[in-house]
Each structure stands twice: as structure tokens, then as C-alpha cells.
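User: Predict Cardiolipin synthase's structure from this.
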Amino acid sequence: MLPDLHLTPVLLFLTILRFILVSSVVLHILLTKRNTASAIGWMGICVMMPILGTVLYLMFGINRVTRLAKKLVSRRATGRQEISKLSSWHHDLDGQFAPLARMVGRLTARPLVSGNSITILHDGDGTYPHMLDAIESAQKSVLLCSYIFRHDTIGEAFVQKLAQAHRRGVAVRVLVDGIGSGYFLSPLYHRLQHEGVPCGRFMHSVWPWRMPFINLRNHRKILVVDGRIGFLGGLNIGDENMVSRHPLHPVSDTHFKVEGPVVRQLAEAAAWDWYFTTHETLSDDLFCHEYKGTGDSLARIVTAGPDTDLEKIEYTTLQSVTLARNNIRIMTPYFLPGARFLTELGLAALRGVQVDLVIPLRSNHRVLDWACAANIAPLLDAGARVWLADPPFNHSKLMVVDKTWSFVGSSNLDIRSLRLNFEINMETYDPAIAQSLDDFISRHKNHRLTHYDLDKRNKLVQIRDSFARLFMPYL
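Assistant:
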């Protein structure tokens, strides 16, 4: 007896619904996903679980930040169209790094500008006094963006200076990350609100339909005062950065004070972040300044994030590696880049470039250390040298090529920073700055990591590290 092939109305509806859902998702993936592994993974999930898979894809698989950014770009009144005001400082480069300068210029739509003064600062002890003095002297505007802004002793010192500036009529805007500075509780945010200081929380929401944005963080650290003085780098605001006071978990870091035309690019990035979060357009006059040549450094700001700036920091680092002739020095707190950066760095080592990578002996995220141990062998195979820096944990993000070109800022060399986070770096073509940073990195080459160190781990540890490596895109 033949089985009954007729479907009930409910089963027929579900069959049609599954077909429509799977077909729609697959078509969207084919048209929008560049990463083949990601595309195949999402298609597999949706085919096996049409309804749940579609819900998950709608929540986590679509980069709505890019769509939102494009919409906001069309609305904002200020932006890069004002960049012509710096035309007298535009600089064309010759020599070894000219291709890099041209590429980054086209990539970012920002010019390389001359006449900048760059000061290297270390730890909160050497940096916070400069930042607080700048805020205290502010006459027109203070734009501050920080991933972590704690309400502790040093955080309260910043609150006091910001509140005083606000009360005397300075336009103060403070942006903190919605997770980095506290998701459920953000004492600093409420403290600033109590003082009347305008403050925003980047990508913060408790509503379920906003959950896809939780994984996208603003990791930038920016301070711009009067459009005249700027600060950027890896330094958050918190007592743990006051290394000389011997906190329980000290964090060493490197920050940069900049003056000159490049400050405008820094200010535009901060103003864009504020607009992205609050939809408030900041008047160009707040950070417009008649710049005078304060130094000899050539510099440019490079921003990256899962919006219209996708992968621009990674592309810049990749191009710099291809142009290296003698040496590459890198210092990063977390080293979990994708395959293409590992490959490019390995190829540089194979062609005779001396590649030195300095990472902490132990970071503040053990799982990242485990994943790094399982991911770093190909670099050793290529002949690169990997060094472990003694405590305190160093959070600096520094890259120097041939003691001429430097790349510094907020971006770690991991997939999260290179693809998910909103980051800001600065490239400089200044041999003096490069030499200082090269010396600083070299002073932290305390212990060399070898194949033997990796091989002597017991099997259970190797399995643990390899398992942690599977979560690289989310660490």
C-alpha cells in the first residue's frame, strides 16, 4: 500500500515557510558575505535549522553597523569635506615608503600632513598629568572618548576637571563604551550626568533587538582639547595604569600627545563617534584651529571598524610588512591575527627581514594567552623571533618598520580589534619617533619563546590551547 503523500495544511505551510526562509537567507549570504568560511557556516546552520537559523542570522549575521554608518554619513553636516582646510600641510612622500603613503591616503581619504609634534608618554603616571592639564586649560572644547573609564581615584580626578570645564562654558563631550565602562552599572557615566556633563554610552542597550551590537565595541582612546592638543594610544582611564602606585593588577601602557594639523583628523574621528552615538552634530568651530607648524613629524590618522572603515588598519599593517627591508618590531598585548597577517609576517621573515614580536609573559586574559600559544607556531617556523615581556602587563600597541615608519594607537593585533572593534591608530614617518619606539620595544625582549617551549606543554594543555584557538574571532 502506497504511503499518503498528501500534506496537511499546517505541514504544507511549514514546508513553504522553510523554503522561503532558507532561500532568502542563502541569497542574502551569497550577495553580502565576503568570507567564504562564514558564508558556508551560516548557510549550513540555516539549512539544518531553517527557523532558528534564520533568527540567529538576522540577529548576529548581518552587519547593520555598516548600513547605519552609511545612512548617518549622508546626514552629517561636518566631516571630511572640511579636510581641504589642511591643504597647506599636505605632504607627498618619496622613497621606500611612498607606496604605503599613497595607499593609506586612498584607503582613508585623509592626507598625510606635516608640521606635527609627537610626544611619547608611558603609563598613567606619565600621561594623566598631561591630559588633566590640557583639560584644565581648555577654553573652547573637550572631546573625550575612552573604552574603559573607571570611577576610581584617577577617574574622579578626570570627572572634576571635566565638570569644571563644563561649568566655565567649555563644550565638553564624553563618550564611553557601553560594555568596557560598565554594561549593567556604569558609575562613571552616572557621575558625569550628575555633574551635568554631556556623556554618551556607545552601542549600549538592554533591548533584545539591539543585542547584535553588543559584540561591537568602541575601543578608541581619544582626547582633543580646543582642536589644538590631542592624545591617543592604548591607555584607558583607571587606577591600574598608575604603575608607580603598585596597584593590585598593574597595567603599563604607551600613549601619545600630538600637536599640529593631524589633531584635526583626530578631532574629526572623535566628533564622528559622538554623532554616531547621539546623532548630535558638533559644530566645526569646536575643533577648528589655525595650525602652526609645531614639529617635523609627518602623520596621519587611520580609523577602522565594522562600518565604512572596515579592515583599514589591517590593510595598512599588511602593506607596511610587504615594504619592509630590514626589520619589523611589534609590541602588542594580545596576538591573535588572522591567517593573512600571519602569512605576510612569516613571508617577511623568510625573505630575510628580522621580525621581532613582543607579547606579555602573561596577559590579563588567560584564554587569549592559551589561543596565542596554539596559533604562533607558523611564525616561529618562518624564523621570526617571539619574545615574552616580564610583568607588569604591558598593554602598548606599537609597530615599527625599518626604524622609519611607526604605527601606534588603540588596535591590538587580534581578529576582534581588526574586524569587530572601532579602533584608531596613527601612522608616522619620523625616524626619531621610530628609533625611540624601537628602543622601547627592544628593552622588553626579556625571554625568547621557542619551539621547545611550545612542545614541552603536556597534551592536555595543548588540547586546551587548541580549543581556545577556535574562539579567536570572539576573544
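The radius of gyration is 24 Å.
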